[in-house]
Amino acid sequence: MAESFPFLLQVKNLTLDFAHKRALNDVSINFVAGKTHALLGENGAGKSCLADILCGIKQPTDGTVLLNEKPVCFSSPAQALKAGIAVVRQRPVLAEKAKVWENLFLGYCEKENCFFADKKAVIKRLTELCREWNVMLEPELAVENATDVQRFYIALFTALLHNPVFLLLDEPSALLNADERKNFLACLEKKVSDGLGVVYITHNVKEASEYCSSVFVLRKGNLVATLENPNFQISEELILEKMFDTPVTSEPKPAEVTENNCTSSRVAFQVSNLYTFSKKSKNLKNLSFSACFGEITLVKINSRYALEDIITGMYKEKLNGRFYVDGVELFPFTAGRLRRAGVGIVSSRKYIRSSSPSLTVKELMIPFFAGRYDTRFRDSAAFAQNLVDSENIDISIDEPVSDLSGGMLQRLIFSREFSRRPRILILCEPLYGLDKSVSAKLEYSLGLLADSGVAVLILSSDTESSFGSYDKLYDFFYLDEKK
Predict the structure, then answer these.
(1) Which residue segment(s) compose the domain that 307 sits in?
(2) How many CB atoms lie within 10 A of CB 225?
């Protein structure tokens, strides 16, 4: 790392106001290079807003950002990057039509005195990074065909090419399975020991306790706790107590899992003898599973199999298999036909498929309002406002979706889908981006839905999924063990 780069990143009395609320209130924190600092808080606590200020996306209403005690004000991420501060977002924005090596080239050539002269040099550096982080990335892979994990590493490597002193990671392990997460954290530790400073934004209290030397807790825009953790022995209960301002006991073990076929009610959604023939993702051979009305079914599978795209009607490649909704075969199997059959869908790609940052909150909430028979709402604005109020989110329905935190957006998408009163609900990575209390509330709500007769199908790519309230489990991770 360049000796001219700063080794102390500070925020002093930082305040950020939006039109209808205060997102950060007089926050002061010191981040030191060569350490991993956890930034925790429930949804809407201000974590992402603080990261946006540090990397030049947002400007504070008041307060100061300092590098080695010198005030700085970044008007863009490029300026922050030049100063040694890089960020990897939850859902990185990449050049979709470009290849992996082209994305790295574009990202690096924003840096002055770019030493890359040709494709060969870019691929050589990519190969070195893949070796350092123990991952595989094909240089010629088109980004639009990359998995979420591959997209994360493309963004990470693009950031690391700039040799930053501080790296802001926004929920970096959320889409990694247990083995991938272990590998990532081990490699990150090596980088930190070499002098990299990491601001680790997360909901994962266990990771904060075991890997972060300090923990900063935000609540409703205020810094409520600074916990030093030099020996990585701080208790998860203490962190949770600071996050929620209440004593927290250890979690009970999940209930036992029933893996037999449906016995309590009829089959609502069924995939039978599924084969895929893709050159872009791992292929499935003779995969079958079903979900019943009145039950919660959890399907765990590596994201490289593209099962989310398949069961939500978004798969564009060749496949063979049969799909049934309430005993009726759907062919062709598309998202539109699923919707018309009474299926609610929550995609893991909430920023691309389930919403758009160019929408207002009202526009996000009303795509299914037309033709509703619910007489409680005279117009779409009242309908949207009711859904926002039901989630206790302090935002105007005329504000842009981009003002929402990731967790708030996820909650509103859930509320929108629940409002359709679906017969079947497909949820892909539903706990991603949610804090502990909201996750518990979601599990409770899904239990009520199942009790009312709705079929709930949950897709997870996490081998250690924390979703414990289900009636049936299909664990397809054994597919990765086959040769």
Answers:
(1) 251-342+422-483
(2) 18
Residue 349 lies in a domain: no
My answer on whether 139 and 281 are in the same domain is no
Shared domain check, 237 and 197: yes
In sequence order, what are the residues at sequence separation of 6 or more whose Cβ sits closer than 8 angstroms to the Cβ of residue 97? 142, 143, 144
The answer to whether residues 257 and 306 belong to one domain is yes
Q: Count how many domains the chain has.
A: 3
Mark which of 386, 417, 448 sits at the end of a domain.
417
Give the Cα-Cα-Cα angle 95, 97, 98 (nearest 5 degrees).
Answer: 65
Diameter of the chain measured on Cα atoms = 67
Low-confidence ranges of the chain (pLDDT < 50): 1-5, 112-113, 116, 249-263, 372-375, 483
Stated pTM of the model: 0.66
Q: Which amino acid is at 140?
A: E
Contact 208, 12 (CB under 8 A): no
Measured distance CA(362)–CA(380) in Å, rounded: 8
User: What gap in Å lies between CA 256 and CA 469, rounded to an integer?
Assistant: 9
CA dist., res. 429 & res. 423, Å (int): 20
Closest C-alpha to 171, from 460, 466, 406: 406
Residues 422-460: pLDDT tens digits?
999 999 988 877 777 778 888 888 998 899 999 999 998
